[in-house]
Amino acid sequence: MNGRELVVLLACLACATGAILFVVHQMRGPGSQHRRRFDALVASLQDPALDPNTRAEVLRALARDHAGWGGRLWAKLSQPVLWKALWFGAGWFLFVLAGTALAMHATRIVEAWQMVPMLTMLTAVGFAMVSMPMAWREATRRSHAGDAA
User: Nearest Cα to 87, choosing from 138, 141, 132, 137?
Assistant: First the structure.
């Protein structure tokens, strides 16, 4: 075994050890934190001075915890911010990648005559995915401003 192979082996062992320690910590840590949080919520429900709005919020928090990993996953997936970020990211990647391919064709780096119409369409779709939500918000803002005036 030469020096380069030894360095690679040690780096792989360090990464594997770090990954195993991380997994063990994640398996052990959140359970105890979850239990402490649950106990604190239950203790707060037993307080007679708790107002009804706060009591309802604590009960909703307990219900969210009771939903399990499927309920937590559904709660994460139902957030519009996630889908907006995915939409913008997909549009940006489409615009950049197809636009780069078109630029490479235009500069004669790559000859792709059959793909030019498809690349043009993909670049336009990517640009629309990135710019249309902002344009829609601006148009809506201006229409509401015009209604108020």
Answer: 132
